Amino acid sequence: MPVPGEQSQGARLRAPALYVYGIVPADVEVDEHAQGVGEPGTMRVIRHREIAALVSETDRTTPRPADGAAHEDLLDAVAAEVPVFPLPCGTVVPDRAAILDDLLKPRHDEFAHTLRELEGRAEYLVELRYPDEERPREPDVRALVEALTPVSVRLSPGRPTGRRDTARLAVLAETRRAGELERALDTLAEGWAGRIELRLFGPLAPYDFTPSDHQADHKSDHKPSG
To answer: Which of 108, 182, 202, 215 is deepest in the core (most CB within 10 A)?
Structure first.
């Protein structure tokens, strides 16, 4: 299936290396116009058995601030279409052999298992904010969890926002049930009108539902869904 994205700049390498975005099923095909953090027109997949690394060529070692957004935008677009195991922004390896020997071969079974579990699913991020700047209340967070549990596969606390008046809940849900998720939030929003603001982001790459040893802190300035 085709996958989109954006582009970058920083300290240069002597020869092009490979920037790695994440791991996808081996049958994924890349749109020839897809762009990410690396050089335009170089996006491709490197396959090993059931899995593949989504990569592009790069001659830079130091990411710039805009690279985080380009990395996430591409992975979020992929997650809307196929299962993806996201890797941290700035993952660069020297060549195809390193991807096979250090990533795909030793972790094949782990990645393949996770991708099977993510089939037809993506992450959605729910943000609960109090306009009067009070701290989120535990009963409200519990009500949010109770409302979303029936339409979710798993729930997890969202990454901190840095704001004392905001809480986030990460939701792993089947993409075909996104409408049910939105309706559950609409019902809550009606009861909380004027007191609490709810925003839904997604579908997103499942950073909060893949093993943390592969992850670095990722930015979360996503645009609301819909």
So the answer is: 202
151 contacts 188 by C-beta, under 8 angstroms: no
Query: Could you tell me if 30 and 54 are in contact, meaning their C-beta atoms sit under 8 angstroms apart?
Result: yes
What predicted TM-score, i.e. pTM, was given to this entire model? Answer: 0.83
- Segment 183-221, tens digit of pLDDT: 999 999 999 999 999 999 999 999 999 986 555 444 445
The b-or-e profile of 212-222 (16+ CB within 10 A means b, else e) is eebeeebebeb
Question: For residue range 71-119, what is the model confidence (pLDDT) as tens digits?
Answer: 999 999 999 999 999 999 889 999 999 999 999 999 999 999 999 999 9
Q: Is the peptide bond before 16 cis (omega within 30 degrees of 0)?
A: no
Whose CA is closest to 138, among 162, 163, 157, 161?
A: 157
